[in-house]
Amino acid sequence: CLFQSSHQSVRMMAALDVQVGSVRQQVAKLVKESLNATVPEVADVEPLVSACNNAKNGDYQCNNAMGIWAKIKGKDARFKNPNAIGQELARNLPESAVVESTSVAGPGFLNVVLSTLWIEQKIHQMLKHGVSCWAPVLTVERAVVDFSSPNIAKEMHVGHLRSTIIGDSIASMLEYCNVTVLRRNHVGDWGTQFGMLIEYLFEEFPNWEEIQEQAIGDLQVFYKKAKAKFDADPEFKKRSQKAVVSLQGGEEKYVLAWRQICNISRREFNVVYERLHVTLEEKGESFYHPYIAGVLKELEEKNLIEESEGARVITVPGHTIPLLVVKGDGGFNYASTDLSALWYRLNEEAAQWIIYVTDVGQSQHFDMFFKAAKRAGWLPEDESKYPKVKHVGFGLVLGTDGKRFRTRSSEVVRLVDLLDEAKSRSKQGLVDRGREGEWTPEELEDASEALGYGAIKYADLKNNRTTNYTFNFDQMLDIRGNTAVYLLYAHARICSIIRKSGKDIEELKQTGTLKLSHPSERQLGLQLVRFGEFVEDALTDLLPNTLCEYLYSLSGMFTEFYTICKVINSEEETSRLLLCEATATIMRECFKLLGITPLYRL
Ligand code: ARG
């Protein structure tokens, strides 16, 4: 069975008697039982449970009463109005350690106050068994996240950086929820431009087989020169076009040259991935090339492919132009590759959810080929059913001038230069704070990287991805605002409180008790146990900014607690140290899901 491992881990957690799922899911389970008891005649009502907007009303609310009222109005003599349904839902809520009390407001809103004792136990469980026991339960078990995906010999630009950062975070959140994730780098390593690159390689480096790949130098410069020659020299152009045919025919010399060019790019990409600690597996466009003919044959047999001006196309609903799948010259394109990749992911990789992270500029392409796949019967008409596909689009990266982010000489910004600058600015900040003398050079390097790269990632992730965002070093490295730097400092401060207490926190986890006595403690505790549902929400809309908002407000609630409640040398010291540790643990998990390296002292 493909999914055994994830089932096993769920079972193991059950054996530990740790409840599985987010708090909201646990409340929803109770509401579901109550719904079954209250209105058994209405089948399949999904429990509508959300956090209360106003903490005065309670912690969670159930909004089912009005919808049910609309269905049973006049048919069920027991209920005169929606409020009566709410009352009955409250009465039928099963006895549970989760719930402290309930109340019904207005047109039947059922408010639930969680048991503080239960919250305390939940936090203690998490401290003992790890954050995995708070993971929401998702219906998906296997997903592909197609992200980063730069193009060989072309520059890896800030758009690819956004894709890398957003895709990595989505993949990590899914992994946290026990989903098997295939992290796919769909690099553009195929296409007609390779004819020109290979021909240029042969001409400029006659001994290309012996030379080190480094000798070729900067591939972007190489690309520009090849392109210039291609445009200026008709003979070269002809040879390039023939080279494409030789490459696609699998002629060894051409395949070797192609591979050498790909290797140079790959090395450059990997530098960025390593620095950002992003893992992903390359299955580039070329990988799917052998599948294209078969896939097109299937689509042909299903009568989906038509002739249009010498090319072969698929018409899709809602678009005036059809999807081009074979060009006039018989060559394949981006869409034929993507259709084949989708076929492969569905059939060979058994993926249930396939997520594509690119700029919004490509939405039309995705919408069209998704619709073609639907016409082929690969995807269900009902989009709530698996397998599902989703284009996760994002906006542009802008410079502080409001225009597309470029260097001063209006060149595309090299990603390593960006990373270098973020790191060196962070380092300077640490040096200014006198850390150079206190830390080893290695510690200084590590902290500079965590701050600098963390700042870039967080500045990107904290925005709703669909909007454009402005790249601004001063802003993202500000220690005060909603930045990774601020959050990393906040985390380090909590760690230092625990250190200063001189207590062995691991021992306290085993022997101590956690009590949420003060309102600011309960507020913080509640925010902690709600972690899982924010991950769930972030994944429902595939919006990592949801998790950033959670983290930022968690940090704010900690500050509130710490301002009001004395920790060290107070009567509640043990309990409050455990609350500090729980906060630091959840902050670290957020960092992990956002791709940020935590720092323990700053
Ligand atoms: N290489 C493409 C680009 O740079 C992104 C590929 C995205 N993935 C996909 N399956 N089309 O724009």
From TrEMBL:
Domain DALR anticodon binding: 487-602
UniProt keyword annotations, A-Z: Aminoacyl-tRNA synthetase, ATP-binding, Ligase, Nucleotide-binding, Protein biosynthesis
Ranges for domain Arginyl tRNA synthetase N-terminal: 25-114
CDD domains, per database record: Anticodon_Ia_Arg (cd07956), ArgRS_core (cd00671)
The EC number(s) this enzyme carries: 6.1.1.19
InterPro entries the record matches: aa-tRNA-synth_I_CS, Arg-tRNA-ligase, Arg-tRNA-synth_N, Arg-tRNA-synth_N_sf, ArgRS_core, DALR_anticod-bd, Rossmann-like_a/b/a_fold, tRNAsynth_Ia_anticodon-bd
Reaction catalysed by this enzyme: tRNA(Arg) + L-arginine + ATP = L-arginyl-tRNA(Arg) + AMP + diphosphate
Cited PROSITE patterns: AA_TRNA_LIGASE_I (PS00178), PROKAR_LIPOPROTEIN (PS51257)
Nucleotide-binding listed as a keyword: yes
Keyword Protein biosynthesis part of the UniProt annotation: yes
One Pfam family in the UniProt entry: Arg_tRNA_synt_N
Listed Gene3D superfamilies: Arginyl tRNA synthetase N-terminal domain (3.30.1360.70), HUPs (3.40.50.620), Isoleucyl-tRNA Synthetase, Domain 1 (1.10.730.10)
UniProt record similarity statement: Belongs to the class-I aminoacyl-tRNA synthetase family.
UniProt protein name: arginine--tRNA ligase
